[in-house]
User: Fold these one by one.
Assistant:
Number 1:
Amino acid sequence: MTNSPDTSTHEVTFVVDHRLTDDEIDAFFDHADDATPIRESGRTLIQFDREAATLATAIVSALHTLEAAGLRASAVRSDDLVTPRQIAARTGRSYESVRTLAAGTRGPGGFPAPLQSEGWSLYSWAQVGPWFARHYPSADTDRELLNTEHDRIIAAADHLVRARAIMAGDNLAADLAALVAA
């Protein structure tokens, strides 16, 4: 696909709500020639290389293509949820350094709160990556900062697609849609 000056190719991967059969995959390609099915751990992923002006536009367009084929996405594949050990690996720091920064016993403070802390802590990389880039700039985190907008959009799209799947057919879904605009 050749990009026009106003567009570029954006990659987005959806988790389909069930493992697709070979017939469903074949039928899907009547709707999309820029997608690749991936079977992984008992589920099917559909990866799009969608030409669009923005990543958000590409996600919406690809989702419409998926749904036009009679398929339903349950999520957008995202590497947003990270443990302190994964944060350490991504930033080139030790686990102990990340743990003390997160606990506020070291560093400038203001470390993003965990999204979950029962059992083990899970953080949003879309929040943690920019924090490191602001407070501890380095070649590693500077490269990550370049992906901040991408990471934020993918993480947000994942939450929104999951919400659509959870609320499908529920008459309260329209009321909750106001949260996005609030």
Number 2:
Amino acid sequence: MTRNAIVDALGVLKAGRIVDLTHLVHPGIQRFGPFPAMRTEPRYTVAESGFHVEQVSFVTQYGTHVDAPEHFVEGRRTLERIELEERGVTAVGHETLDTDGSADVRARGLDCEKYVLESDHYQVEVMANLDKLPSTGGVIFVGLPKFDKFPGFPVRAWAVVPNED
């Protein structure tokens, strides 16, 4: 692929409309029942230290997040093993807290989620604005952090879709 082809592809993406697929993360965000709420503590302020830093504590599966296969299947891929250049990536993305519906979870547990992760695919849960995407013709990007041996982590997800005009 030539440099010009890459620049041309970037031009096509820039001409599209960006749809944010990520929920705002805050202590009151909807989360899986037993998980604790996020906690924040200001460690440094601009007024006192010349810069602002927060200390944050939350579980790895919080807000819009990725589940690596290790989340349900011991010994499978963790975050750092999800390659940036995977071709033919197969992943699941949805708006709900779990792949399985709540009635299914009560009846059978998290069978669908386990199936996806056992298949060595990853998934992005608690996505926003999926109703604003066309059924075909868009590209979804997910910014994955590279924490060692983590089963998941919050992500920033967005889509580029054709402009409506």
Number 3:
Amino acid sequence: MNLKGKTLFITGASRGIGLAIAKRAAEDGANIVVAAKSAEPNPKLPGTIYSAAEEIRAAGGQALPIQVDIREEEGVLAAVRQAVLTFGGIDILVNNASAISLTDTEHTPMKRYDLMNGINARGTYLCTQACLPELKKSAAAGRNAHVLTMSPPLSMKTHWFAPHTAYTMAKYGMSMCTLGHAGEFRPYGIAVNSLWPRTAIATAALQMIPGVDLKACRTPAILADAAYLILTSDAREERNTGNFHIDDTLLAAHGQVDLDRYAVTPGNRKFIPDFFVD
């Protein structure tokens, strides 16, 4: 099974992990809806919906760049309508867009709290809701419909909350969507899963966090390859829905145990661990 001719609606696909997932799908000849906010170049965060679309086309896919703020319902609904008009439907939704602030309660203004919860939890729920009619059609047509959310396993341990309660609440909100929607959409034949990295991933967004050594990270390609395995699995099989996958564990289960090519620094074995992985 591959992604040739499938249409993927990917939030936050203008750079980083979302773009890597898009380009991996494009290698099969997939159609990618680049749903993100960045339409103008930003020296701090390189990449726009238009530059991403060019990279996707160069990789072998079709691309539709749409500027959208996933906190705004009408904008998301309009983006879905445009995607359907252009490509005829939506087969896969990748909830990748996310906001992060690793601040404690005293240093998290409510504006920042609302931003994280609006993009992470609410945005994931909204995009899933908006795409659901098309995903149901895709599943009914035997096109292997999937929802993949880039969010962690739900580990209710104090140490994952205490340093940054607001961020953890927002990120776990995405994972709660996976937990609930996997059960809710199972009768339709739509698979719903989460994917999360074991290590920190070298992205432009990560560079903005003080003190992070990108040389001790892996590249977004590891998540792109892991996502590909999920999105090409049979959505109707019980074992292929409701999972909280960790990237290297999933790859190892498929026989990919040599992960050195994903290291920013070849040969490195001492990676920065990501949050939420027990």
Number 4:
Amino acid sequence: MSHDNSQDEYIHLFWLLGNPTRFEILRRLSQEPMFLGQLSRELAVHQQAILRHLQELIEKGFLETYEDESIRGPPRKYYRLAKTVRVSVQITPQGIRIVRVVPSMRQPRTIEGIIQRSYPELHQLVSMVQRLRSIPNELDRKRAAIDLIQQLEAKANEAQEVSKFLDSVISSLQKEYL
């Protein structure tokens, strides 16, 4: 049986997704970006094995990385989905046929995704909320929480001012052009 390069690509795609660990990594990262230690703990798989899977998924364009500040210690390297891929397969008595593989750079629109893409400074603040729980000393945790609350309140006030301004611009445009 001969097959062309696109078939080789499909075979590799199914091999990639057929691994239960890689599939579970993709499933979890479709919910939220995570760092290596989180994935290792949640999947109960050694970090070196997770890292090999992550590298494979990055090489094939499924994942990308970014660094985010940490309350304690150096910035953490996070992994997230790089794209959306839809695959349609027909399996019939006559054979298996890949109907289409549609890559899409459009990510699902969630408030978290919007903040992450459009407001990186706010995204860093919001991501600090989860990290508060990892501060072992209660007094340090409370101090960090108070500081974070103040920063988030300032951002919320800015957002309200921006929203008011945008409402007035929209209203002005509607009056003038509609």
